[in-house]
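User: tokens in, sequence out, please.
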């Protein structure tokens, strides 16, 4: 397990976006972890071994996130992940979060088929990141194209990484831009 400085879980309950209130509000949540970047301040050629070390963190964060949204994997419809790397690190360090973060969420949710969208950047303490969100079983479900802004005021420090996982209970509140609807998913290839 990496050296963890802090966790933060943030939740949102959205009742409307200037339109009629839906029968159920949309719930979104993000779990953030601030960890020491073991590669900060130097170039290391072989960094892939750190992905294995991140796996238990990914599982812990996915479980915290699911608990924040009520604990029922069947309610989760969208997800995404991201990383902000402190200034003494490099963008490639954020790429190490792709597999541990994504597979952890897919594992906790049980049968999610779509790739988990991701983003990353280099940032100073207080940097914000828009984490992309798509449907868990079909990436082309347009109603679930969304993002959640995340960040922590004192992170990441230059020698840290801020890692994020995001889940939602539905698509945008007033989605009406057409495209593949969630109830029309075939769900075999993660795309449609």
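Assistant: Sequence out:
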């Amino acid at each position: 397990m990496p050296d963890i400085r802090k966790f933060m879980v943030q939740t949102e309950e959205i009742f409307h976006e200037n339109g009629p209130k839906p029968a159920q509000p949309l719930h979104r949540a993000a779990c953030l972890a601030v960890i020491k970047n073991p590669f900060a301040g130097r170039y290391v050629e072989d960094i892939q071994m750190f992905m294995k070390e991140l796996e238990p963190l990914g599982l812990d964060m996915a479980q915290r996130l699911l608990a924040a949204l009520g604990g029922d994997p069947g309610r989760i419809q969208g997800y995404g992940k991201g990383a902000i790397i402190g200034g003494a690190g490099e963008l490639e360090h954020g790429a190490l979060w792709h597999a541990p973060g994504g597979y952890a969420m897919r594992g906790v949710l049980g049968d999610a088929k779509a790739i988990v969208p991701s983003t990353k950047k280099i940032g100073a303490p207080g940097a914000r990141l828009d984490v992309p969100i798509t449907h868990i079983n079909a990436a082309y479900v347009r109603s679930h194209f969304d993002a959640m802004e995340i960040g922590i005021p004192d992170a990441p420090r230059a020698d840290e990484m801020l890692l994020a996982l995001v889940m939602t209970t539905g698509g945008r509140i007033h989605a009406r831009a057409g495209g593949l609807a969630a109830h029309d998913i075939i769900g075999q290839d993660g795309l449609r």
